[in-house]
Structure formats: structure tokens, C-alpha cells
Amino acid sequence: MTRTFRNVIRLITIAQTLARHNAIEALEAAGLPRPLVWALRHLESRPPNTPLGTRLAAAAVALGPTFIKFGQALSTRSDLLGAEMAADLGQLRARLPPFSTQESKEVVETELGAKIEDLFATFNDKPAAAASIAQVHFATTRDGHSVAVKILRPGIEQAFALDIDLLLWLAGWIARAKPAWRRLRLQESVETFASMVQVEMDLRMEAAAASELAENFEDDTSYRVPTVDWPRTSRRVLTTARVFGTPIDRVQELASAGHNLDKVLQNASQAMFKQVFRDGFFHGDPHPGNLFVGSDGAINAVDFGIMGRLDKQSRRYLAEMMLSILTRDYEKAARLHFQAGYVPKDKSVAAFTLALRSIAEPILDRPAGEISIGRLLGQLFH
What range(s) does the ABC1 atypical kinase-like domain occupy (predicted)? Predict the structure, then answer.
């Protein structure tokens, strides 16, 4: 089967799925020929009573892991999609349909070369969490340790390779059909996305990341990383110590349990700043589902599939940029962007200074408790 024919067939399936979820307008925006859009509209149920982002999220779940993951990545691009749609796609971070326990056990036994009962004293049949790439089961080892066993979805590597080929082909088509969209560099975005997910699909890399992060915080009692169980870890299986705690966004539960919320916030923010500015190695997906507050108030992190690195020079630029923005020295912040190479040298420093002011002032004018450094940085780098 030729690449074009295979991708056209898959594209038709995607179009039908979008139609069933009343999301055909997404294809229209992407440049699909209008006659084809009209032909697909008869599959839609009328009228859609939910936002487009919510409908796209439902369609992504129906289309499978690659599109779920792609939707999750897009949910961080409010500059591209708008805040409302990005927030709606953020629903894809919630619990997703699991694969069967039998499949989970087969992957574990194949990867680790032993029977489940020989590897674990107990293995919970019900997944504790299911995501686009893997799901987690709680278990107990033969020596009595509580562990979390993360298992890659069966067949995901092959499905991902085919879907990435489709997305690259589609990005090229959109670039030709919509010249104005070329500035978005869709093909480069897909390639970056593919590289990121390839790393996530090798759970040994996640184990190594967890191990490195744990070493960086071995003398810090306010932030903990679960210990990797290396003998029970492979490319498709990752076993770590089980984390106990309350999700960091359950504020009422934390308060009822007697936690000092200011201290919890301080622990979380200091841990992130240490990762970025002290170590240059940081958790790249610190959403509330990946951060738990222990009984002692310490932050317990999970899911190390997405990590980031900054060299010393980049850390220095970032720190100076943030300080310049927070002190409203926009010209200095602009020049730092140029020095770091984040902005082409042929652009106007004065114009960029004005642009920085337009982004920062609405945020910095808020009360201190409402200022989001993450939002500020996100807008600066988009």
C-alpha cells in the first residue's frame, strides 16, 4: 500500500470520526476542500451543544493514543488555539479508557521474563491510572514493598509510527494549501512531537530521568521522587515505589488534613525553581495529576516521561529575563532575548520592547497572589 493511499484512507477515517463528534469544522479550518467538508456534514448530529475543543477531545479519544497525546500537546498552545479551546483539550489529561488487565500482565511477563505471581505477591487488576501511552497498576513485591507498575500500551509503537507519518504528510499538505500557516512550522512541530513521544515510549528513559531527579533532591526533604525498582523495569515496564498522598489541586482536602497551604505552595515553587535554575534538569509535565502532597507536606512527584534540560548559559539568560520583566525593565529583557538568539537579529529591539510591555503589564498589574509566572513565561516564549 502506497504512503499516499494509506494516509488518505486513514484521513477518511479521521474525518468520519470528527463528523460523528460534530467537529468537522476543524477540518474546514485546516484547509480540507469545501465539497468534501459538505459531504461529511451529513454524518454530524445536530446541533452541537458543546464547545469545539470538547468535541475534538472526544474525537481524539476515539482515534487512539497518538491523537490523545497530540491533543494534550496542543492544549499547551493557547497562542495557537485560543485559551478556551486549549483548556477544553486539557480534558485529555484526565483518566482515559484502560486496556485489559490480561494484556497488562502479558506485557509484564514478556518484558520481565517471569510470571506475575513470581514477580509480585499481589497485582491489582484494576488500573490506578490510564493515559495515552501507558497505564499504572499497583502491586506488592515479594519482599513487601508497595510499588506502581507502569505498562506501555500494547502495539502503541506501530500505531504511533503510522499516525506520525500521516501527521507529517498532512502538515505538508496544509503548508501547501494554506501558505499563511507556514509560519507555524507544522512539520517541525510534528517532528518535535514525534521525538518527544519516542522517548516517552521507552520506559527505561523515564526510569533514568526519575533516578537523576532523585539524586538532585536526595538531601531535600520537601520534594521526593519514587525509587526505581530496576530489576522490574524494562523498555515497556517501569516499576517504582508507590507514592501516597493527596493531589496538590485538592485544596479543601489538604486544608482539612491540617496542611499549611502556604508551605505546600512554597515547597512546590521552590522545587521547580531548584530544578530549573540550580540543576538545569526539570519535570516537564508538572500538572496537578503528577504532584501529590505527603502527610508531612512534602511534594511527591510522579510521571517523568517528559523532562527538560537547560545549560548554564540558558539558565542565566532565563533568570535575568525574568528579573528584568518583574522589575519592568523591558528594554533589558528585550536585549537579553536578542543576545540569547530567541529573536532574529534583523528585528527591531524597540518594537520587541513594546511587545514585551504589552504582554507583561496586564499580568504584573494583578495582585501578587494572582500573578502566574508560568503564564507570563508561556506568553513570552510563544
Answer: 92-336
